[in-house]
Amino acid sequence: DFPAGDEGYHTYDEMVAELRAAADEHAEIASLSSVGSSYEGRDMPIVKISDNAATDEDEPEVLFTCTMHAREHLTTEMCLRIVNRFTDGYGSDETVTGFVDTREIWVIPSQNPDGAEFDISGGEYQGWRKNRQPNEDGSVGTDLNRNFSYKWGCCGGSSGTPSAETYRGASAASAPEVTNVQNWVNSRVVGGEQQITAHIDFHTFSELVLWPFGHTNDQVTEGMTEEEYARFEDVGTRMAESNGYTPGQSSSLYITDGDINDWMWGTHKVLSFCFEMYPASGGIDGFYPPDEEIGPQTARNDAAVDILLTNAG
Ligand code: 0X9
Ligand code: CA
Ligand code: CA
Ligand code: CA
Ligand code: ZN
């Protein structure tokens, strides 16, 4: 469980219960399913929110993903806020109702349920980042945000040492959690066309809005034209103006290879962003803001989420 005083954060079981309740209470506009199981066998839920949720309609599809890194618990709360805002607000909030009627919103609140549960084991924060899959050398964990299949391990933006915090895994998508997310996104190619048009993967921390590519410092390169880059910069800058984060290309932070955003764009041409949430700076404590911050720091991204939904059209 979360340490005393931080009970406002959702454990895995509490997260699942919250998603079930949202789907039960709003059956017409919310449906709960799964992208698969984690290494340790936990279900990885996905929620779809749209009018006529049970029907695959011809509406732009938008994906929000959270908690790729175990200790980034604030992001689970971000995805839960998205679920609750677009279900509870339907019919009363005009903006929410408009998006639910014209978009298909998909939310995966935890991409790393094993790591997140391990991070709060014993009622103390463990400072854990990776998943909980054992490695050949006896160490544990793959960095899921280095394990995606686009240019995996290409560019010095990940580690080949299993015990390292940025271990890329034994092969691309060797982590079941990554395979599950990739397979689900691949499954949204319908009639030869990817249905997902826009995506945010929420992380903590540093208050940044980041866009591809992460594997190179070049703006324009194989897989990214000048016009495409300009679109990322335009939407990214406007989202950052709305929440007060700093916008930039991912690689301006540091080079990564195998991250989800490079894969989403490089493989599927999805307008894909990485948000680094509150706080702006800090040490290991930066991953553990008090639960009093959940409300303000998730609401802070409402306008950015709406900007993405608008631009998914
Ligand atoms: O390193 C990561 O995976 C992300 N930062 S975190 O502190 N949440 O671990 C940033 C990924 C964005 N991509 C690049 N910076 N290239
Ligand atoms: Ca508290
Ligand atoms: Ca619909
Ligand atoms: Ca559809
Ligand atoms: Zn992260």
From TrEMBL:
Keywords: Carboxypeptidase, Hydrolase, Metal-binding, Metalloprotease, Protease, Signal, Zinc. Residues 8-312 form the Peptidase M14 domain. The keyword Metal-binding applies. The keyword Transmembrane helix does not apply. It comes from the Bacteria. GO terms for molecular function: carboxypeptidase activity. The active site is at residue 276. Its cofactor is Zn(2+). Belongs to the peptidase M14 family. This is Zinc carboxypeptidase. It comes from Actinophytocola gossypii. The chain holds residues 103 to 415 of 415 of the full protein.
